[in-house]
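Regression test case RT-17, inverse folding.

Input:
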């Protein structure tokens, strides 16, 4: 009888062990875990809904930062990855209004989904970003390579002002443009401006810059113009990623432009 009881208890323990096992969750060893650093993705789905074909959000993981296009506006945030666990800090985002309304609705859905991300797993050639309960909130496909726009001959439009770890949008209702050709830089903020520029490799040196002296319609626009001209003359490097031009000064400040 004792042998029968022991065998029964052993069988019950085995059954309990089998029934207590749970499916893989974000960060578990059994989940297929990709390395995100240095990768670029296009968002094809947000909580199960397909994204707009002409306005798909993007994600670019570089070092400990993730940035991209949220549908209309650019965003920038820090992230940490530990195996299949993924945490994204609250994102800084520019605040331009875009049309149609569906684009802005998609951007809001993307921002909400990004804030909920807690894990990542591979899915074929793409990725699934998961929330804390394991639900897929963002579906990603590899980003096709985008040819870099030429620095010279492209009309650039200001899309972001880079501060200390933040990217702020231009003043609402204003446009700041920039063009470079034949060693000359020209542009328009509130006033038109121009000056010499030297570029070599990734180095950048502009100025001194001269501008017209008309009063700006808004005080904020005048402040923005002053900051843009100051940063242009302080910038020491540039980089072009597809349609985005980034100018950086040694103190970390900078300007971000998109090809118009």
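Golden output:
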């Amino acid at each position: 009888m004792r042998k029968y009881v022991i065998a029964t208890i052993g069988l019950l323990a085995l059954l309990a062990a089998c029934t207590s096992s749970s499916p893989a969750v974000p960060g578990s060893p059994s989940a297929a875990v990709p390395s995100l650093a240095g990768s670029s993705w296009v968002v094809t789905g947000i909580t199960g809904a397909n994204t707009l074909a002409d306005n798909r959000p993007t994600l670019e993981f570089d070092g400990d930062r993730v940035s991209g296009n949220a549908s209309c506006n650019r965003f920038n945030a820090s992230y940490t990855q530990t195996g299949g666990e993924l945490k994204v800090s609250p994102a800084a985002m520019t605040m331009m209004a875009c049309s149609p309304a569906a684009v802005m609705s998609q951007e809001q859905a993307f921002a909400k989904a990004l804030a909920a991300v807690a894990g990542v797993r591979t899915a074929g050639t793409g990725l699934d970003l998961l929330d804390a309960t394991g639900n897929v909130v963002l579906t990603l496909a590899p980003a096709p390579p985008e040819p870099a726009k030429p620095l010279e001959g492209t009309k650039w439009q200001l899309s972001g002002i880079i501060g200390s770890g933040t990217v702020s949008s231009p003043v609402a209702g204003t446009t700041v443009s920039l063009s470079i050709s034949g060693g000359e830089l020209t542009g328009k903020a509130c006033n038109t401006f121009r000056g010499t520029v030297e570029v070599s490799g990734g180095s950048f040196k502009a100025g001194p810059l001269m501008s017209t002296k008309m009063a700006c319609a808004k005080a904020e626009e005048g402040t923005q113009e002053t900051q843009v001209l100051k940063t242009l003359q302080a910038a020491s490097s540039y980089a072009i990623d597809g349609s985005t031009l980034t100018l950086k000064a040694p103190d970390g400040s900078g300007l971000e432009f998109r090809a118009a």
